[in-house]
Structure formats: C-alpha cells, structure tokens
Specification:
The protein has about 180 residues and is α+β, with helices and mostly antiparallel strands. It has six helices and five strands, in the order αααααβαββββ. Strands 1-2-3-4-5 form a five-stranded antiparallel β-sheet, with no helix packed on it. The radius of gyration is 35 Å and the shape is elongated.
C-alpha cells in the first residue's frame, strides 16, 4: 500500500516538474520505491519550468518581446519646427465658401458634416470637441479654425490659421 502511494506521488511530481512522456514511462517501469529519500533526488534534479511557462502566459500586448525587435532610432536631420505635425485634415472641396462658416466634427465623414452657413451664432451651437471653419472674405487663401473645448460645447479654446489649398499650419491667433 505504501509503495503504491510513493509511486503515485513520484508520478505526480514528475508531471508537475514538466518531464517528458518518455521519462514518465521509465518511472512507471521501475520497481516501486519503499522509502521517501529516493523520490526527493528526482524532484530536486529537475529543471524549474517557471520561466518557460511565464513567457507563454505573457499577455500579447506586453512590450517585453517587442522591445528587442524595434530598430534603433535614427538621429533627426533637422530639429522639428513648430508646424511640422499640424495640418488641417479637411478636404479642400468641403471647406466653407468665402464669408461662411462650417462646423466640423473630427472622425465623421465629410458627407455627414453639417452644411456651411452664416457665422452668426455658430459658436453657441457647436458641439463639444468640434471645430468651426471660417473663410474670411478679405483673404481667400486661408482658413481660420476655432477649436471647441472637448468637454464644454460652445467654448472656444484655440484659434489657428491654415492655408486653404494645402491645409498647412500657418500660425496661432489670440482668442
């Protein structure tokens, strides 16, 4: 009875220690041990599988594996200017006509945007996170963009000027 328990215990330990099927078959063919000290060396001699299993369990979104695969950063040829990343992402065909305004919602299709209209009272009707595009009558080559606060509708937080044809950022204006 005691020998069977030792055999079952050693089989369970070999499974937990991560030995192969071949090792388990050899352990089953050996005569049952009658004392516990013969079981302990087989468990101690096994390799700890924790690092192997930890790598398999790592979340795919973790950056542990990807950090080594990233290429080295290239040195910048020129220092980045203030206007390097800013551009008006509104197609030129969808800009308002000269002297009119248009509310523009980021992430919405150009065909689902509100139609251009008079600039009277447009700020109060602009939803939070939107932009108000304005084409001044005295300078047809620019577009003035009033940015509405992301959390408060009708509150202008920034005014920027862009080229109408290219969408290139020109300057900031005071509110």
């Amino acid at each position: 009875m005691f020998a069977n328990r030792v055999l079952l215990f050693s089989a369970a330990l070999t499974l937990l220690a991560g030995c192969s099927h071949k090792d388990r078959a050899e352990a089953a063919r050996k005569p049952a041990a009658t004392s516990a000290p013969t079981v302990a060396p087989t468990v101690v001699a096994r390799r700890d599988p924790a690092p192997k299993h930890a790598a398999k369990r790592a979340a795919p979104s973790s950056g542990a594996r990807r950090t080594a695969a990233k290429p080295a950063a290239k040195p910048a040829a020129k220092p980045a200017s203030k206007s390097s990343g800013l551009a008006l992402k509104v197609p030129e065909a969808h800009l308002p006509t000269v002297g009119q305004c248009r509310i523009w919602k980021e992430g919405t299709s150009p065909f689902q945007q509100p139609q251009p209209r008079s600039c009277d009272g447009i700020v109060s009707s602009a939803p939070a996170g939107s932009m108000i595009l304005y084409r001044p009558a005295n300078d047809k080559k620019i577009v003035r963009v009033r940015y509405i606060d992301a959390h408060r509708a009708g509150v202008v937080v920034r005014v920027r000027v862009f080229e109408a044809a290219t969408g290139k950022y020109l300057r900031d204006e005071k509110i």
